[in-house]
Amino acid sequence: MTGDAPDVRHPLLVMRGIEKTYPGVRALRGVDLQLRAGEVLALVGENGAGKSTLIKILGGALRFDAGSIEIGGRPVHFRGPLAAQQAGISIIYQEFNLVPALTARENIFLGREPRRFSWLPIAQERRRSRELFQRIGVAIDPETPCRDLTVAEQQVVEIAKALSQQARVVVMDEPSAALSPRETEHLFAVIRELKSQGIGVIYISHRLSEVFEIADRVMVLRDGAHVGMRPIGELSRDRIIEMMVGRTLDTEFPKQAARIGPPRLVVNDLRRGRAVRGVSFEVRRGEVVTLTGLVGAGRTETARLIFGADRRDGGTIALDGRTLRLSSPRDAIAAGICLLTEDRKSQGLVLSRSVQENFSLPNMNRFAPWGLLRARRECAALESFVNPLQIKLTGRKQAAATLSGGNQQKIVLAKWLARDAEVVIFDEPTRGIDVGAKYEIYLLINRLAAQGKAVLMISSELPEVLGMGDRILVMHDGRITGEIADVAGATQEQIMELAVR
């Protein structure tokens, strides 16, 4: 693609003046979108900007209040997801829509089996599956159960399913969120192959480095409105961020020097099977230690052992010189350790419950010391974090499931901040959230360090690791393979060399 102005005579997809309003919230304000055949359009914006709403409308999961959609120059109006699929629209959500127990082949053709006969043309489906995988450029056994595939391979199955439905437009929502750098590069190769076949791709991501690598044009949404659509060659990283947040950020990583004191958290010879093998390190007062490594290196497993979520085979954990006996998260919380889990939806929040209930869960000893809830104290404590963390809520009774990813993360942060823990472990704290929300979390990490807390930050984002760490630890195959004390002089290549040892 050359990045020229779009050919308005023959666009593949056109959405005009899309409006959508929920009670009390105007989610989309006359949004326009245009996609050409063989183009990758990156759709970016802060959490809550309207990206998910727009894509759900395109996929037939939501109905718009006003506007129009055209595919290949013909007006369409979808009554549901099936109608959108039949029109050539395929949405690949961040949480895959696969049945783990079924094979790759069965998932690709699920719901489209012949109905006139009792038998299934398995040989035909198997041959067609191989053709689809070959078309994408990967080799996957069609008879492999999806539960046995890697995340990257499951994503390929989703793409094959889209192609089997004759998709002309493929939407990918945060497709690299759970992929390693090598798997992400393979994903990009698949996307380029789709482009070469004339398929239009809408790529949603908070990782701007990926946007510059794969996108032909960028469309920015802010507060439900279309801010702009430009060829990638006309944009800089800082300009995209400014369009997304509506202001200029002085620096993407506002790291502040804190006064670093003696060791607080000391981990020695921590072990659990092959996942964690003799891990030892310390985090000092006021220090931010960033822990990184490839997917499966043992980072999250190490955090769970420190938090008492898993039983360790051996090793010791000490806080301020006192050896801790941690047999459960309750013990860790009581000792002054908190963990912001990697998967906030399944492990950090009870999505069906309200924001207030989620905030109060680890703090009930404060709000109900004698078994009687002090609602006024509970509400006041929650309100004390809403403005400083810039949490966007319709009310404290709002269900956690209805919040954007960034606001969900802030609720998890708020509940732990209310504990005033001495050791704060962040596991992928900025995964799936926008640059504005990331910036606020970085400022919060600075504040915790300035208060003398010990901060352990696990991240796969190497710019983040370099931008926020006072020291860097690198893991591979369950072990610490390197430590970088001179962060200012470190490079991403240096970290990757340690990560693949």
Task: Characterize the structure shown.
- The chain has 501 residues and is of the alpha/beta class.
- The protein has 3 domains: 13-245, P-loop containing nucleotide triphosphate hydrolases (Rossmann fold, 3-Layer(aba) Sandwich); 249-336 and 421-501, P-loop containing nucleotide triphosphate hydrolases (Rossmann fold); 351-420, no CATH class.
- Helix content is 33%, strand content 24%.
- It contains 18 helices and 20 strands.
- It has helices at residues 51-58, 81-86, 104-108, 122-136, 151-164, 181-196, 208-214, 237-245, 299-306, 329-335, 344-348, 355-360, 364-367, 375-386, 405-417, 435-450, 462-468, 492-499; strands spanning 13-22, 25-35, 40-45, 66-71, 74-76, 89-92, 169-173, 200-204, 217-222, 225-231, 263-272, 276-284, 288-293, 314-319, 322-323, 337-340, 423-427, 454-458, 471-476, 479-484.
- The strands form 4 sheets. The chain has a 6-stranded mixed sheet, sandwiched between helices. It has a 6-stranded mixed sheet with strand order 16-17-18-13-19-20, sandwiched between helices.
- A hairpin with a 2-residue loop joins strand 9 and strand 10.
- Helix 4 packs across helix 5 (151-164).
- Mean pLDDT is 87; it is low at 1-9.
